[in-house]
Write a structure and sequence with these properties.
The complex is a heterodimer of chains A (about 350) and B (about 325).
Chain A lengths: L12 E7 L3 E6 L4 E5 L2 E4 L2 H7 L4 E2 L1 H5 L4 E4 L2 E2 L2 E2 L4 H17 L2 E2 L7 E2 L3 E7 L5 H10 L6 E6 H8 L4 E8 L4 E7 L8 E4 L3 H15 L7 H11 L10 E6 L2 E6 L1 H9 L2 H13 L3 H8 L2 E4 L8 H9 L7 E3 L6 H12 L2 H6 L3
Parallel strand pairs in A: 1-11, 9-10, 11-12, 13-18, 18-19
Antiparallel strand pairs in A: 1-2, 2-3, 4-5, 4-6, 7-8, 13-14, 14-15, 16-17
Helix pairs in contact in A: 5-12, 6-7, 6-8, 9-11
Chain B lengths: L2 H23 L12 H20 L1 H6 L7 H9 L27 E6 L9 E2 L2 E2 H18 L3 E4 L9 H10 L4 E8 L9 E6 L6 H10 L7 H11 L4 H20 L7 E7 L3 H5 L4 E8 L3 H7 L2 H22 L1
Parallel strand pairs in B: 1-4, 1-5, 5-8, 6-7
Antiparallel strand pairs in B: 2-3, 6-8
Helix pairs in contact in B: 5-12, 9-12
The chains are: A alpha/beta (about 350), B alpha/beta (about 325).
């Protein structure tokens, strides 16, 4: 800890943060939980500033007002974009915003916790390099008192008490992370990261829709909303019909086959990576791990995905895939559990 | 999984997550690409160069006499063949190789100031072991650096660094020797005060076991970790080097301090299983440079000049060892 100041337990706020490419979630030890879209925007000119009456906008509000904003999505594939001061500032704004939501203010105040009394665990993609983590650490200087950066799937596993003989598949927007839990903090060999994830599905879906309906005016934001509402693999539960302007006229578009095709781009690399990691588990534990596969992250909600993965597991003796009904906070809740369990002596060494 | 087991697994995972973060903070590369046991590798390489010619040249000599104290490679070979026919084991036994044949120099020194942060060590009102050791370590660092040694410190301020982490810092820095500074406290013998220096080894002395347990309290090692560590240590060749280093330091400590403190006793070089010595991979010693339980010594330890004298004595011991190694 900086200097030798000692914080009373009652003043310390522990938080778990899932800093996601698409959405960021925070869970705090005071019981507060929030999720925001990972977008930060600054008014493009004085006119926009006058209209918006704000210096900076964050999350869904920023996306809604994007035409008047210099909009930044500061994370790419789960990591901070490097080399851009604006993106660094954006992620700092995002983090400050998340902390404000759970009752943290720069210098504390009535009913608030000071930033200098915050201990944070932040989840990053499994394949994040030490330089990425160092960069994040530098970026968070002055925002929290102490910081622990962990692999996101590890945070998920920790929160679920699933640290032994478990395979976590965390499908986010920027990355799909895999992590075999062997009762220890995962090493590089236990983890994999794919960049086929929510964002790549969006891009693929947008292209397929544009190919089929060249006259339709469709943006990546609309596509993302549709995917989140209707995504599926395998047999379509219902026909997926959405509305988009065609030559200025709102028109119903059937995107069932496009949605299936784009969501199914996730299957081959996910299945291959899952089977590869399973094959590397000690033979006597393979069956236990196969029956303990946990699907988390927004991608875990793709309908039919757990069944598709279970089908693939049949070729190696079968298995069970469980998905989180509420995947939004599973990473941040895990981070919070870790933050609360780490002893004070450890936190003292992890000054941000 | 049972609740108790989950807790254990979680505690270990938290420890490992923290360690990984500390490595990131220090800018260390991932474990897979880090040089692991620099000194160990040098030993292994050089020992293997000696084993072949010695085996060829001395086979009759080897078979003829019993071994007084076989080297570590020999002990391991014999242990593996314990169940074999009685004529075979003798093949690998020969006299101990004099470490002097292995010319190793000393460039990088780890100074470990005992205790720190929430762990004061032995303490009295106005004087704590953690403060004394840090002050002496800082003075020693300055002396060593002025003489051209490269110095790594396990702590530079009043922070608690777990023993495990101290060993990790030393090993990751690929240093040549490790010097841990402590101050004794012997509650039932407040009239006595002296200096003593430890290197790693087993002890039958119950008071030393107690002292080691006291110093090992903040280790952070699990039983399983300990088993792995202990598997390899006593047979390690660095024991001999540690003993030499301890001898040099003890001699300079006693010689350098007795003029200032005529009542000082020489408690000599001893063996004890201090964890910080177990987990380090280079020649390592732990010096008890004074006695906080003795009133006279406490008065001395309050004085800057006396601490300076202790630092100089430690420096002289390290330099003497380094000169031997040239």
């Amino acid at each position: 800890m900086k200097g030798s100041k000692k914080m009373a337990d009652s003043e310390v706020l522990h938080v778990g943060i899932d800093l996601g490419t698409s959405r960021s979630a925070i869970s705090a030890s005071n019981g507060e939980r929030f999720v925001v879209d990972s977008f930060v925007g600054w008014p493009v000119d004085m006119v926009a500033k006058k209209v918006l009456k704000r210096n900076v906008m964050i999350g869904h509000e920023a996306v809604s007002n994007r035409t008047m904003l210099d909009l930044h999505r500061p994370l790419e594939r789960g990591l901070l974009k490097e080399g851009s001061d604006k993106d660094v500032e954006a992620v700092r704004e995002l983090l400050r915003h998340l902390l404000r939501l759970v009752g943290v203010e720069t210098d504390g105040g009535e009913g608030k916790v000071a930033m200098s009394n915050v201990r944070a665990v932040v989840g990053v993609p499994a394949a994040a390099l030490r330089t990425n983590k160092q960069y994040l650490r530098n970026t968070m200087k002055g925002i929290v008192d102490s910081l622990m950066i962990v692999s996101e799937p590890f945070a998920v596993a920790y929160g679920l008490d699933a640290l032994l003989h478990t395979l976590i598949i965390d499908i986010g927007a920027g990355t799909t992370d895999f992590c075999v839990m062997k009762g220890r903090y995962p090493t590089e060999d236990d983890q994999r990261t794919l960049t086929i994830a929510g964002d790549s599905i969006d891009i693929h879906l947008l292209k397929l829709i544009q190919d089929r309906y060249p006259q339709a005016n469709v943006t990546i934001f609309m596509v993302r909303d549709w995917k989140e509402k209707f995504s599926f693999v395998g047999t379509a539960p219902d026909k997926v019909v959405v509305t988009a302007p065609v030559a200025g006229v709102p028109t119903p578009l059937d995107i069932t086959s496009e949605l299936r095709a784009s969501c199914e781009t996730l299957l081959p690399p996910t299945i291959e990576t899952m089977l590869d990691l399973l094959s590397r588990v000690e033979p006597e534990f393979q069956e236990r791990v196969r029956n303990n596969i946990i699907l988390s992250g927004g991608g875990g909600l793709i309908r039919g995905l757990p069944e598709a993965l279970q089908d693939a597991l049949k070729q190696v003796g079968g298995g069970k895939v469980t998905y989180m009904h509420d995947p939004v906070f599973v990473g941040s809740d895990g981070g919070l559990a870790l933050a609360l369990d780490a002893p004070d002596t450890d936190w003292e060494k992890l000054s941000a | 999984m049972k609740a108790g087991h989950i807790d254990r697994v979680k505690r270990r995972a938290v420890r490992q997550a923290v360690a990984e973060n500390l490595e990131t903070i220090r800018g260390l590369p991932p474990r897979g690409v880090r040089p692991k046991v620099r000194l160990g590798r040098i030993w292994l390489r050089r020992v293997s160069l000696l084993v072949v010619p010695l085996t060829l040249a001395g086979s009759t000599f080897l078979l003829s006499k019993p071994v007084v104290e076989p080297m570590f490679v020999v002990q391991r070979a014999v242990a593996r063949k314990a169940g074999a026919s009685p004529t075979q084991p003798q093949l690998m036994q020969y006299e101990k190789v004099d470490p002097a044949a292995l010319v190793l120099s000393v460039h990088r020194v780890v100074i470990d100031a005992g205790h720190g942060g929430t762990d004061p060590g032995a303490a009295l009102p106005g004087l704590s072991e953690k403060a004394v050791t840090l002050d002496i370590a800082t003075r020693l660092r300055s002396l060593l650096e002025k003489s051209g040694f490269e110095v790594i410190t396990t702590r530079a301020d009043d922070h608690l660094i777990p023993l495990r982490e101290r060993a990790h810092i030393a090993n990751a820095s690929a240093s040549d020797i490790f010097v841990s500074i402590h101050v004794n406290s012997i509650v039932n013998h407040t009239n006595e005060h002296g200096v003593e220096t430890y290197f790693l080894g087993p002890t039958r002395d119950a008071s030393l076991t107690k002292l080691a347990a006291e110093e090992n309290r903040e280790s952070g090692y699990s039983l399983a970790d300990m088993r792995k560590l202990l598997d390899g240590i006593y047979a390690d060749a660095r024991r001999d080097e540690s003993q030499r280093l301890a001898g040099n330091i003890q001699s300079q400590l006693y010689g350098g301090l007795r003029n200032a403190d005529p009542g000082l006793q020489n408690w000599g070089v001893k063996r004890a299983p201090f964890l910080v010595l177990v987990a380090t991979e280079m020649p390592a010693i732990l010096a008890e440079v004074g006695c906080i339980s003795n009133e006279k010594e406490v008065a001395m330890l309050h004085k800057s000049e006396y601490r300076d004298r202790i630092a100089r004595a430690l420096f002289d011991g390290i330099r003497a060892y380094a000169v031997e190694k040239r």
